[in-house]
UniProtKB/TrEMBL annotation:
Region forming the signal peptide: none
Domain of life: Bacteria
Region of interest: Disordered: 1-22
Segments traversing the membrane: 45-70, 251-270, 277-298, 330-349, 391-408, 414-437
Protein name, entry field: Integral membrane protein
Organism: Streptomyces iakyrus
Biased composition, class Pro residues, residue ranges: 1-12
This protein's UniProt keywords: Membrane, Transmembrane, Transmembrane helix
């Protein structure tokens, strides 16, 4: 029916639904224009609000990862011990501990007093003057021999399971010292001393001292109980780092929750949810990559800041890598999650590549469903229900995968890959069962039912 230029009824309005006033063609056009303008303005406001929420979420994402890592290290004793335990078996760290302990033990052995006593004894015994003079030159060889024996003894201790057990036990008992390091308190085995972070090796010193005494070095029993620490970190910015870590420790429990909430609100507020999910996932992936780069730069700066006289570069690198490895693992895991999320959001979109992938997958599941039907497998009403509620079943499966990762204790890249693989397999199986119900097989009693 051709349109007319006559008056048309006005659209119902709140409180005046029963009015029968008619709008002219010009008024109707103006009304439609204003309504479109209001809709455009509303969408722009939603995009602006979603953009603000997204920017906040992306800025907080790296800070949330670091804050959660710090809170995990401070509050979970097992996790902290798991972090520092590899240091006991690292060759570079073992060499530092051996050298420091050997030097301190040798310092307590008065070689000059031993040679003086020997010289006096020989002289008193009436030994020939040549023998007495030769005994005075034994200081260097004797000191070298003492160092060699002490070094071998300490090396056997440090490279044995005793050292590893002592290391883990000391750190487990002194886990509260992690808090001391972050807050600047001088308590526990791990503590801040000025611009350095030190670990007390008292238990290891006791073991070495006892072994030296058992080996015949009675003088080793005089090794004092003071200054038995090894410097782990040395940096001029330690006080600032402590202030930042205290703040991160406070926010560690809630900052990740706030970040996820902001990202979810950004996706929900945007008019096009799938597109905003894609943008959010890409943004989070970029921020995780930036965090990895920042950690690499921080590692370089730390190694440059630590004097080689205080800590050899290989030992400093081993200590840094050991302490931040779980932070790096978490960042990489979130990067993989972001990439998978972005890929999924793209594949559910209208792009040519996404349509091609969905078409291939649909043909594959349809062929598998027909094969099941020909093999005599009937999915019946279950298959029809899966086909009718495909979007619901897909959402439930994906939601179950997300829940599994949330409940997973410290998920890794491997865990994410495993869950993603299981989700894909389950979706393929469900689509195949749905396709089997939609492709019934012809029987000899009558014509096949057309799909």
């Amino acid at each position: 029916m051709a349109p007319t230029d006559g008056p048309v009824p006005s659209p119902p309005a709140g409180g005046d639904e029963g009015s029968g006033r008619l709008l002219s063609t010009e008024e109707q056009a103006e009304y439609e224009r204003l309504r479109r303008h209001a809709g455009v303005r509303h969408r722009r406001l939603r995009y602006a609000g979603a953009g603000v929420l997204l920017v906040l979420a992306l800025l907080l994402a790296p800070l949330s990862v670091v804050a959660a890592w710090v809170d995990d290290q401070v509050s979970d004793t097992g996790r902290y011990v798991q972090t520092v335990a590899p240091l006991a078996s690292d060759p570079a760290v073992q060499d530092v501990v051996t050298d420091r302990l050997t030097a301190r033990v040798v310092e307590q052995v008065d070689v000059e007093a031993v040679t003086d006593a020997l010289t006096k004894s020989l002289a008193d015994a009436g030994a020939p003057p040549r023998v007495v003079e030769a005994s005075e030159s034994l200081v260097g060889p004797l000191r070298s021999a003492v160092r060699d024996v002490v070094d071998r003894t300490i090396t056997r201790v440090v490279t044995s399971d005793v050292f590893a057990q002592a290391w883990e036990g000391a750190n487990r008992r002194a886990h509260a010292a992690v808090v001391s390091m972050l807050t600047g308190q001088r308590e526990g085995a791990l503590r801040a001393e000025g611009d350095t972070v030190q670990l007390d090796l008292g238990q290891v010193v006791d073991e070495v001292r006892q072994r030296l005494v058992d080996a015949g070095f009675e003088k080793a029993s005089a090794i004092p109980d003071t200054e038995r620490t090894v410097t782990l970190f040395q940096a001029e910015e330690l006080s600032k780092a402590q202030d930042g870590m205290r703040l991160l420790n406070t926010l560690g429990a809630w900052l990740p929750v706030l970040t996820v909430a902001l990202a979810a609100l950004a996706v929900g507020a945007a008019p096009r949810h799938r597109l905003m999910l894609l943008v959010t996932a890409v943004g989070v992936g970029v921020m995780m990559a930036v965090l990895l780069v920042a950690l690499a730069l921080l590692r370089r700066a730390y190694l440059d800041a630590v004097p080689s006289a205080a800590l050899p570069p290989d030992a400093a690198a081993a200590i840094y890598d050991t302490f931040v490895r779980f932070l790096i693992d978490s960042t990489r895991t979130l990067l993989v999650v972001a990439v998978i999320t972005a890929l999924a959001a793209y594949l559910y979109g209208p792009g040519r590549g996404a349509r091609a992938v969905r078409s291939i997958a649909r043909r594959g599941t349809s062929a598998a469903g027909r094969s099941l039907s020909r093999a005599g497998l009937r999915t019946g009403s279950v298959g029809l229900a899966l086909a009718e509620h495909r979007s619901w079943t897909t959402g439930i499966v994906i939601g179950a995968g997300v829940l599994a990762l949330v409940l997973w204790n410290h998920p890794t890249v491997g865990a994410v890959a495993l869950v993603a693989g299981l989700v894909i397999v389950v979706l393929i199986v469900l689509d195949t069962l749905a396709a089997a119900a939609q492709h019934p097989v012809a029987t000899g009693s009558g014509p096949a039912t057309a799909p």
